[in-house]
Amino acid sequence: MAGVNKVILIGNVGKDPEVKVLENGVRVANFPLATTEIYKKDGNRLEQTEWHNIVLWRGLAEVTEKIVRKGATVYIEGKLRSRTWEDKDHVKRYSVEVVADTLTVLSGRRDDSPGHHRDVESFSADNE
Question: What is the pTM of this model?
Answer without folding.
Answer: 0.82
